[in-house]
Amino acid sequence: MQASLELLSTLERDQTLKRKMHQVMVQVAKQCASRSQAADRRARQLDLTMLCTDWRSGEGLSSTGRYRPVWYNIRESGEATLAQLMVEGAELPREQRRHLHQAIDRLDAKHVSSCGV
Question: Where are the chain's structural domains?
Fold first, then answer.
C-alpha cells in the first residue's frame, strides 16, 4: 500500500490530494511500527533457518503449515520497517532502527530460506 501511495503522490498534481495521501502514509507507518515490534518479539521464538517443504508434495506456504510463520516473520520484519521509511520527511525512530538492524543481523544468509529482508 505504501509503495502505491508513494507512486500516486509522485504523479498527483492536486496539492490537497497529495497532503491527504501523505496523511494516510503517516497512519500506515504508525501501524507498521507496531507490526515491526510484534515481528521482532515473534522472531525470537522462531527457527528462522527452517526450510519450507516442497510445495508440490508438502505444506509449502499453506496458511496452516509450520513454515508459514517463519516465512511471514522474515517478510514482515523488513516490510514493516521499509513502509515507515517511505514517508517523505519522516525519520525512523531509534527503536525502529534497532528493529531493522536486528531483523537484518538475526538472519544468516547461508541458513535462511526466505529473502524477505
Answer: 2-105
